[in-house]
Amino acid sequence: MAAGVMARDVNGAVKTALRPLMMAWAPAALLAGCAASDDSAANRTVWVADGPPTNCISVQQIRTMRIINDQTINFEMTGGRVFRNDLPLRCSGLSFNARIRHNSRTSQLCSLNMVTVDSFGSGRSAPSCQLGRFQPMRRAPAPASTPAP
Q1: How far from each other are the two terminal CA atoms of the chain, in whole angstroms?
Q2: DSSP string for the chain
Q3: What is the pLDDT of residues 5-56, one digit of tens each?
Q4: Backbone phi, psi, residue 14, to 5°
Q5: Rounded to an integer, what distance in angstroms lies between the CA atom of residue 107 and that of residue 60?
Q6: Residue 138 and residue 83: Cα distance in Å, rounded?
């Protein structure tokens, strides 16, 4: 029979309650998972610039627009290419969980275009913010950290 706390239900049948046992060892399992993760420099990567910035990207190639903060959006393209857009000014309401839409009426999304933060029916006007240039990015190994003296 499984380990746990034994109890009887209203009909007198013996039941095993695993919940107290699970609650006791769940934090230890989580810590073990953290300790087992390989955090070596070989397994960590950072994003670095991959060539000169461009003024426009293809709208049809945009797979995902990922908001990093109130001034940075990553445009993930089909084929795995990533372009980082650092807006010239901070964009009020632009946050990790926000949704945005762009105003391009052509096949290109350019640094002169605006993005608008969806307000989700909040009753207030949604802020619109101008895009900056599109910086191609690539993953690179993280620099090795040196221990403090």
Answers
A1: 53
A2: --SSEEEE-TTS-EEEE-HHHHHHHHHHHHHHHHHHS---GGG-EEEEE-S--BSEEEGGGEEEEEEEETTEEEEEETTS-EEEEE-SS--TT--TT--EEE---SSEEETT-EEEE--TT-SSPPPEEE---EEEEEEEEPPPPPPP-
A3: 444 544 554 444 434 433 444 444 444 444 444 555 556 778 899 999 999 9
A4: -80, 130
A5: 7
A6: 9
